[in-house]
Amino acid sequence: MTLARISNPWMSHLPSMLDRFFEGDLMDWNSSNFSDTNTTLPAVNIKEDNDQFMIEVAVPGMKKDDFKVDFDNGRLTISSEKQHEDVEKEGEKVTRREFSYQSFQRSFTIPENMVDAEKISAKYENGILHLKLPKREEIKPKPAKQIAIS
Q: Is 13 a member of any domain?
C-alpha cells in the first residue's frame, strides 16, 4: 500500500482561518494591517490586567524616532517608515543586497470608552515597542461588595 499526500492549497490555510474565526475577543485586534513590502508584519503580543492593556511589538533594529503611534476614535495605529539609502562608496560594488527596510502599519480597534486616551504611553527598548493603554476607572473590575444582613 502506498500513502500519497494530497496537495490542496486551501487545506493548508484552513487551520489558521479557523483559529482566526474562533479566537474572536472583546477587542478587534486585527482590523487593519499592512506592509508596503513583501515582508511580514512585526509580531505583536497583547496582554491585559485589571488596570491596563499592554501591547508589545517586535521591531528590532529601529529607533524610537522611526515610529508613529496614534489613537483616534477608538483606533490605535502603530506605523513606521524606515528609509534606506543605497549609497555605494567609490570603488565598491554591491553584488547582493538582502537588508530589508520596510514600512508597516498595524491598527487595533478598541471599544469606545475602554481606555484613558490621555494616559497612553509608549517606550522602545531592546527591539520591542511597549505600549500601555490604561483602562478608564469606570470599567476596571470592582471588588465584591459585602452586604450586611440586618
A: no
| DSSP per-residue codes, 31-95 | EEEEESSSSPPPPEEEEE-SSEEEEEEE-TT--GGGEEEEEETTEEEEEEE-----PPPTT---S
What is the C-alpha to C-alpha distance for residues 51 and 101, in angstroms, rounded to an integer?
36
C-beta of residue 139 within 8 angstroms of C-beta of residue 52? no
Question: What is the chain's length?
Answer: 150
Query: Which grid cell is 23?
Result: 479566537
pTM for this model (two decimals): 0.64
Q: Which domain holds residue 52?
A: 25-83+102-139
**For position 29, what pLDDT does the model report?**
47
β partners of residue 78: 69, 106
**Quick check: is 14 in a domain?**
no
